[in-house]
Amino acid sequence: MALIDHLRELRRRLMWIALGLLLGMGVGWWRADWTMAQLTAPLDDIAESSGLEVHKTFTEVGAPLDLKLRVALFLGVLISCPWWILQIAAFLTPGLTRKEKRVTLTLAALAIPMFLAGVAFAWMAIPSLLRLFLGAAPEGFGLYLETSQYLIFTTQVIVTFGAMFVFPLLMVALTLPQVVRGKTWAKGWRWAVVIIATVAALVTPSADVVSMFIVASPMVVLYMAGVGVCLLLDRRADRKLAALGVDLHVDLETA
After folding, report:
1. Considering the chain, what is the average pLDDT of its residues?
2. Does the structure show a pLDDT above 90 at 240?
3. Torsion angle defined by CA atoms of residues 170, 172, 173 and 179, in that order, rounded to the nearest 10 degrees
4. Which of 28, 108, 148, 172 suits a disulfide with 72, CB 3.0-4.6 Å?
């Protein structure tokens, strides 16, 4: 497929993804108030059990509408995740062999529950994060919390964890055909840690190191797990090449 055809296909897939997100966002708008209540429920429960006085506030006139749109978009991403994951897979499959297409679609199908598992993990972890942070408040103190900041933080953490649970599958998808060797992933761990730390810093609204570390740690663990699987795939590929009499030290060691 020529480059211009790839670009046209990319544009088409992006349009379909955008349409799916818009439809999901429409459903999300309908359930946005309920979702905001669910996201703030752990905060209310912790405040009630600890005796901490919490005031959820807006600091701008347009903040409530902006927040509802953000939550609707967040729900749109979650609702339409099977659609946009399969669209990404469909963009990658042209030009692949039948076996490679089957593997790609299988990984795409696995990516859907993995994304949702990351979302569920983050959802369950948020109350623990709140207890850690709010538990340090001295007795008798209150908390004036900007509602938009809190909900943007929680939705960003949830989506980020969903994406990071899928990333090891992307690593496997690139290592199976030996497009990227497992050794390459392993050698790039320093860059991976820097990128993960940057992402963690972007999704956490505060500048404290503790928040960034708590968000980044599971991401690093997932990356290392993906590296381990890719190294096993390297060994399998090397055994196949060795059985065919291919000299592994010619090309593979420099890959």
Report:
1. 81
2. no
3. 110
4. 28
